[in-house]
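RECORD TYPE: inverse folding
INPUT: C-alpha cells
STRUCTURE:
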C-alpha cells in the first residue's frame, strides 16, 4: 500500500519510522511518504492560509495550494500491488468501472480529510481502508481546509473522499489523526504484525466485543492472582472464560456494542449478563 501524508509539520510524522509501522516501511510492505504542503507554495513566505470569507476568527487553508499538492500525489502512476489483489473498490465502484472492470481495475485511491465534523473513524473504516491501493491524508491546521477541496475531489471518479473524525473533541491539527489512521490501517496489512492471530480476538473485531482481560507472569503480583482457569491448561475452559469475560466487559463498558450484536455473533453458551 502507498500512503501519502500532506502536512505543514512533516516532523510530526517522524514517529512513523518507529515500531511496527517503521519496520513495515523498511520491509517494503508499506510505501509511506510524508510531504511538506509548503513545497507547493510559490510566495516568499510559503503561505498556505488566508482569512475566512464571511469573516470570523482564525485562518483557513487555501484550496489552490491543496489542489496543486493533491493533484501531484494522486497522479502517482505506479502503486504497490494491493493486498489480496481485490478489484478496486468493488465491482460497482466508479474507479473500477472507469478502468473497464475486473481485467484492469484502476487503483483504489482514497483521500482522507481528518476533521471533527467527519464520520467517526472506527475499526470497520480501518479495515475498509486497508483494501485501498493509495491513501492520501490531508492534515488540516487553523480553522481547517477550504470546503471546496473535499467537494472537488469528491466529484472525481478516480478518488474516494472520506472526511473522518477521531472523536468528539478538537485537536490543533490533522497530524495526530494521520498517525492514528496510519497505525490502525498498517497493522491490518498482511505481514505487518508478527503474529496475525493477534488480530483475531481483538476489541472491535468480527466478534463485535471488547477483548477479555489479559495476564502474564508473575502469577501473583501486588497480592492479585491470575484467574485460576488460565493456568489450568484446559483450552476449552480458557476459551469459555475469555468469551464470558469479553461479554461481561462489553456489557459493562459498551452496552451499545452488545445491543448492536447480530444473533450470528452469539454462541449457544453465551449468557445475558
Ligand atoms: N474549525 C474546525 C471545527 O470546528 O470543526 C476545527 C479545526 S481544527 C482546530 C484543525 C484541524 O485539526 C482540522 O482541520 C483537522 O485536520 C484536525 N482535527 C481537529 N479535531 C479533529 C478530530 N476530532 N478528528 C480529526 N481531525 C481533527
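DESIGNED SEQUENCE:
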Amino acid at each position: 500500500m502507498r500512503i501519502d501524508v500532506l502536512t505543514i509539520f512533516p516532523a510530526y510524522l517522524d514517529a512513523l519510522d518507529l515500531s511496527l509501522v517503521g519496520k513495515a516501511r523498511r520491509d517494503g510492505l508499506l510505501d509511506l511518504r510524508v510531504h511538506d504542503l509548503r513545497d507547493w507554495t510559490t510566495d516568499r513566505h510559503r503561505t498556505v492560509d488566508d482569512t475566512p470569507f464571511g469573516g470570523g476568527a482564525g485562518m483557513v487553508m487555501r484550496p489552490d495550494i491543496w489542489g496543486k499538492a493533491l493533484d501531484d500525489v494522486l497522479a502517482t502512476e505506479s502503486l504497490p500491488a494491493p493486498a489480496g489483489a481485490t478489484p478496486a473498490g468493488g465491482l460497482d465502484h466508479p474507479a473500477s468501472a472507469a478502468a473497464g472492470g475486473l481485467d484492469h481495475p484502476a487503483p483504489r485511491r482514497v483521500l482522507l480529510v481528518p476533521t471533527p465534523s467527519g464520520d467517526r473513524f472506527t475499526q470497520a473504516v480501518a479495515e475498509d481502508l486497508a483494501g485501498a491501493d493509495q491513501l492520501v491524508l490531508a492534515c488540516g491546521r487553523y480553522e481547517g481546509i477550504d470546503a471546496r477541496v473535499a467537494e472537488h475531489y469528491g466529484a472525481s471518479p478516480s478518488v474516494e473522499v472520506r472526511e473522518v473524525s477521531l472523536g468528539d473533541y478538537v485537536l490543533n491539527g490533522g497530524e495526530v489523526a494521520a498517525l492514528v489512521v496510519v497505525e490502525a490501517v498498517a497493522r491490518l496489512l498482511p505481514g505487518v504484525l508478527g503474529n496475525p492471530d493477534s488480530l483475531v480476538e481483538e476489541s472491535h473485531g468480527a466478534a463485535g466485543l471488547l477483548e477479555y482481560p489479559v495476564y502474564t507472569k508473575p502469577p501473583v503480583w501486588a497480592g492479585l492472582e491470575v484467574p485460576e482457569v488460565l493456568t489450568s491448561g484446559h483450552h476449552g475452559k480458557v476459551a469459555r472464560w475469555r468469551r464470558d469475560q469479553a461479554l461481561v466487559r462489553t456489557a459493562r463498558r459498551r452496552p451499545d456494542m452488545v445491543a448492536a450484536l447480530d444473533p450470528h455473533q452469539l454462541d449457544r453458551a453465551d449468557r445475558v449478563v
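NOTES: Residues 84-101 have pLDDT under 50 and may be disordered.
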